[in-house]
Specification:
This protein is mainly β and about 80 residues long. It has strands at about 5-15, 15-25, 30-35, 50-55, 60-65, 65.
């Protein structure tokens, strides 16, 4: 959490509730709004409370030591 900085960005999902966003600091670069969480999800989704999600499009993801290819989606950086 010491590499994350809160932003003013928020979004709402009808199925999960209000999401809050963070920027990730990697060296001298801040990757804006690449992490999000539902600090108080709707009652039907209690298991996601306070978990962090990362955009695969913005980070290097390793599975069993193998770097995964970044997906190209509408959320990819241009």
């Amino acid at each position: 959490m010491d590499l994350l900085g809160g932003t003013a960005s928020v979004s709402r999902c009808l199925y999960k509730g209000l999401a809050r966003y963070w920027s990730a600091r990697i060296g001298d670069e801040a990757i804006e709004d690449t992490v999000w969480s539902y600090p108080a999800p709707i009652p039907e989704c209690p298991k996601i409370e306070k978990l962090l999600s990362f955009y695969d499009e913005h980070v290097n993801l390793y599975v069993d030591g193998d770097l995964q290819e970044r997906p190209v989606t509408p959320f990819s950086r241009r």
